[in-house]
Amino acid sequence: MSMAKKPVKYYVVDAFTESAFKGNPASVCFLEEERDEEWLQAVAAEFNISETCYLSRITHSLHGISNPRFRLRWFTPVAEVKLCGHATLAAAHALFSSDLVDTDVIEFVTLSGVLTAKKIPAIHITSASDSQNGEAQDGFYIELDFPVDPVTEFSFDESTSLLSEALNGASIIDVKRTQIGDDLLVELTSVKAVSELQPKLDAIVRCPGRGVIVSAIAP
Asked: In this structure, what is the dihedral angle of CA atoms 33, 31, 75, 94, given to the nearest 10 degrees?
């Protein structure tokens, strides 16, 4: 007679936003026992959002001396992937917001090596009146340490018009290509140009490589 599996605790976390139903969502599932690949993929397909990640504890922290370690895996609705930024951020947020860790650093063992997430205290002013009254809401930022993906030169002469179309005519300073992810890394003229960018997704699909990363020099 087979033993019933334990229920799986999960969260849906909206990354890169402070408001619900915005940002980039990811499902975060806490596994207390092993699940097979078929089950992991089926659950990711059931959630049907860009990424579902699975956490299983490897080690606890030792009186705050060592960092807790978790195994972390990421699945899209159709396949496992080697790395996902926003789902890692979501996993770290879920752990830091729970009673599962008592340190400010978490280590994730992944297909891309050991990644770390660090909790950094921050003070968020809740409103102008709160600021005047000296009241603030405690919060935190999360700093992620990811493996470096080296870039190579990319001759985009033939793809200039397509890339320009994909970025809706934004002024392009330089383009590189990442070696591991095979993404185009595009530098624009300013942070404002990045924040106001309205990309054309149908044109991005036709660009070389896996995807397009847009950035600019910080002020």
From this structure: -170
Q: How many helices (H) and strands (E) does the chain have?
A: 6, 12
User: Which residue in 34, 38, 46, 51 is the catalytic one?
Assistant: 51
Distance CA 214, CA 188 (A): 7
DSSP calls for 131-164: HHTT--EEEEEEEEE-----EEE---TTTHHHHH
Domain-wise residue ranges, the chain: 9-145, 151-215
Q: Does residue 80 have an active-site annotation?
A: no
Cα separation, 122 vs 104, in Å, equals 13
Amino acid at 1: M
Question: Do the strands 212-215 and 184-188 form a parallel or antiparallel pair, or are they unpaired?
Answer: parallel
For residue 212, the cross-strand partners are 184
* Cα gap 133→136, rounded to integer Å: 9
pTM score > 0.85 for this model?
A: no
What are 21-63's pLDDT values in tens digits? 999 999 999 999 999 999 999 999 999 999 999 999 998 876 6
Question: Under CATH, what is the fold of the domain 9-145?
Answer: Diaminopimelate Epimerase; Chain A, domain 1 (3.10.310)
Positive or negative, the Cα torsion across 31, 144, 179, 215?
A: positive
Q: Nearest Cα to 43, choosing from 71, 7, 85?
A: 7
Question: Tokens for 74?
Answer: 């990421």
3-state secondary structure of 74: strand
**Contact at 8 Å (CB) between 5 and 34?**
no
